[in-house]
Amino acid sequence: QVQLQQSGPGLMKPSQTLLLTCAISGDSVSGNSVAWNWIRRSPSRGLEWLGRTYYRSKWYDNYAMSVKSRVSISPDTSKNQFSLQLNSVTPEDTAVYYCARYWDTVATLDYWGQGILVTVSS
Amino acid sequence: IVLTQSPGTLSLSPGEGATLSCRASQTLTTDFLAWYQQRPGQAPRLLIYRASIRATGIPDRFRGSGSGADFTLTISRLEPEDFAVYYCQHYDHSRHTFGQGTILEIK
User: Fold this and answer.
1) Which of B42, B46, B100 is opposite residue A109, by nearest beta carbon?
2) Beta-strand (E) ranges in chain B?
3) pLDDT digit string, tens, across residues B9-32
4) Are A82 and A99 in contact, with CB atoms under 8 Å apart?
5) pLDDT tens digits, one per residue of A33-82
6) Hey, how many other C-beta atoms are within 10 angstroms of the C-beta on A109?
């Protein structure tokens, strides 16, 4: 059974850098048929996919155009986890952030973390 | 691709059937269309993948159908725990797109 455990701050100030971590159990961050994603949900934007990282003989990443200039998603193989870094946050980045696994066989996001509410406020 | 879900809110009683729609702004070239259920305070839960395949542990009251640009989630014999928000989602060109959601509420 795959489990994803998220950690990170709940309150940020504008212009700070958000760092969230997703610890994986029951699978490997380096798996060849999976990808590791970050998604957020806000009242104004609904569910918004932010990006992913995955390993296929080497590491790759993809990002949503809406955050591409500010976001980085990276793996940590020693801890079997991956992280989201979002720079220069604004109140528009206030949302519940989720990590999730994509599995090739189902071609969608099948396991999700519990979610973390991140509030950006001065 | 933009996914538009309808209706925005659906008010029904337990025991009734529900039909939720998801329309894509262009014909999907794959069947990579999924449906999720989200209850308050919980993460989205995968119900249906590849348009019509139930995920592990999902009761057969949930049925996904459709192709091209029109997809449907049908829930028969609504149970109290089915009242939640439902999202459709498409995966293509290395990104995921979500519909805005349908709220299924108790009448």
Assistant:
1) B46
2) 3-6, 9-12, 18-24, 33-38, 45-49, 53-54, 62-67, 70-75, 85-92, 95-98, 102-106
3) 999 999 999 999 999 999 998 989
4) yes
5) 999 999 999 988 899 999 999 999 999 999 999 999 999 999 999 999 99
6) 27
CB B85 within 8 A of CB B79: no
Could you tell me the two tokens for B4?
């538009």
Contact check, Cβ <8 Å, B96/A37:
yes
From the list B32, B44, B55, the residue facing A112 with the nearest CB is: B44
| B10 HSE (CA, 13 A, CB side) | 25
Give just the sign of the alpha carbon dihedral B34, B52, A24, A30: negative
> Is any Cβ of chain A less than 8 angstroms from the Cβ of B32?
yes
**Tokens standing for A77?**
């193989």
